[in-house]
Amino acid sequence: MIRKLRKLPLYLKYIALFVLLWFPARLLRRFHPDYRGLWLVSERGDDARDNGYWFFRYLREARPERNARYVISDESPDRPRVAALGKTVRFRSLRHHLMYLAADCLVSAHVPPAAPDMVIYLHLSHIGLRPRGRQAFIQHGIIQNDMAWMRYPNLRVDLFTCGAKPEYEFVSSRFGHPPGVVRYTGMCRYDALPAGGEHAREILIMPTWRGAFYPSGDAFPETPYYRHFQALLDDPRLSELLEELDYTLVFYPHVELQGELRHFHSPNRRVVLADKNSRDVRELLVRCALLVTDYSSVFFDVAYMRKPVIYFQFDLEDFRRYHYQEGYFSYREHGFGPVAETAEAVVDALAALASDSFEVPEPYRRRADAFFPPRDGKNCERADRAILGLEEP
After folding, report:
1. Any domain includes 255
2. What average pLDDT does this structure show over 387-392?
3. Do both 237 and 300 map to the same domain?
4. Could you tell me the residue range of the domain that residue 155 belongs to?
5. How many structural domains does the chain have?
6. N or C end of the chain: smaller count of CB under 10 Å?
7. What's the whole-number average pLDDT of the chain?
8. Predicted structure pTM score
9. What HEC string does the chain produce?
10. Same domain flag for 209 and 188
């Protein structure tokens, strides 16, 4: 409650902008070509590395006649790659606010799509302040957990795409969205992933974040998260294995925990503590020979590329309490790799996979292949058709 009260001036600012710009946005849509038939595409507003970027790239290359624009801040390290495609709008600029209200379609990997502030506009939507355009949520990652805030009517969108068949069956049957909203199109970013297991000499550790009530800052080193991952980085057998294989290990925490990266350390020259400004998640996933994660949905991307996965789950009970409730996916029954509860067990599993040239063993390969029909490189095309099929606003 205190946090919301502190944001009250910002809420009032956005409400005022919404009301004051509503009519000018309508006029611009009618008389200005930049605002007519507009599709506004985004991610968080300061990045271009996910489904939003790859869908926008598809539009610029395959549908150049479409009036599509990408929302991104001037300070973003990803801005040059979007600017090279053309048609950008600066995040939270006056033009962004006007286009948000004028657009026919709002498309994003996050919700509300293309909003100047996702949290505030999600709350504003609950009191009826919604843009005129149809809203297409093309997702940030494959859902495996039960996320109450994504259920209808907590979340109201016109299109909710899914990246895998079991995910689609779960979301469409459990999240309560109106008929036709949830569609199985595939993940847009998967169109750019190699599916043959190609890799560099790198092992990737990419754990997810924890909920808002998880300790942070000076208290973070006392958490099980820190203790277990630091123990893995310190494991002498891991250092020996990296040396023997001539491999590098890249440790890249989730973007929400990048601020805690300063607490981790390793004297090993083969261990890289990677930050979000210098490393691209997609490139890390494509380069890795193997992924170690706890619960991050990036393991779906790695399994899609037919690479091995190890789940390091030392705090499952706490994760369910602080973060997400279990959904349809059981890591032990449906997962694409072994589940380890200690750093020692992770190294054991890693050594076993290395001895087999990082080939994905059964039954994990069979599970992954069954999880992702089809693999035809047409996910962006299917998403485009689904958005075009939305009723004219």
Report:
1. yes
2. 80
3. yes
4. 2-192+377-388
5. 2
6. N
7. 94
8. 0.91
9. CHHHHHCHHHHHHHHHHHHHHHHHHHHHHHHCHHHCCCEEEECCCCCCCCHHHHHHHHHHHHCCCCCEEEEECCCCCCHHHHHCCCCEEECCCHHHHHHHHHCCEEEECCCCCCCCCHHHHHHHHCCCCCCCCEEEECCCCCCCEECHHHCCCCCCCCEEEECCHHHHHHHHHHCCCCCCCEEECCCHHHHHCCCCCCCCCEEEECCCCCCCCCCCHHHHHHCHHHHHHHHHHHCHHHHHHHHHHCCEEEECCCHHHHHHHHHCCCCCCCEEECCCCCCCHHHHHHHCCEEEECCCCHHHHHHHCCCCEEEECCCHHHHHHHCCEECCCCHHHHCCCCEECCHHHHHHHHHHHHHCCCCCCCCHHHHHHHHCCCCCCCHHHHHHHHHHCCCCC
10. no
